[in-house]
Design a protein that fits this description.
With 126 residues, the protein is α+β, with helices and mostly antiparallel strands. Helices cover 19% and strands 35% of the residues. The mean pLDDT is 97.
């Protein structure tokens, strides 16, 4: 199971990569493996303002449907439009080309409350 050390993680299986004041967000390798083949993805429009733990979209697979939750507060500044034409990217490259949204963070220190890779591995017992 791939859990990159440089990322932060949520209990709802989103990951965050900090790029200055921007949080790049996607779902973890664990989440995509539990979901199986992704068949539908709904993401927000750029400009939407998200609160911490607010649902920002829906992901569906052959097994289940799940809400996606904002790990930090801020404005959605970019959505990965390429995913709509290639949902399998989420399964194949969840930490790279499978990113979902970019959020301009209101308070970058919120990332510090998220789990480290070690904490996430222990939380998921993997």
């Amino acid at each position: 199971m791939n859990i990159p050390a440089e990322l932060r993680y949520t209990r709802s299986d989103e990951w965050v990569r900090v790029e200055g004041e921007v949080a790049v967000v996607g779902i973890t390798d664990y989440a995509q493996s539990e979901l199986g083949d992704i068949v539908f993805l709904e993401l927000p429009e750029p400009g939407r303002y998200l609160q911490v733990d607010e649902s920002f979209g829906v992901i569906e697979s052959v097994k289940a449907a799940s809400d996606l939750y904002a790990p930090v507060e801020g404005e959605v500044i970019e959505v990965n439009q390429a995913l709509q034409a290639a949902l399998e990217t989420i399964n194949q490259d969840p930490y790279g080309k499978g990113w979902m949204i970019k959020i301009r963070m209101t308070d970058p220190s919120q990332v510090e409350r998220l789990m480290t890779a070690e904490e996430y591995r222990a939380y998921r017992q993997i």
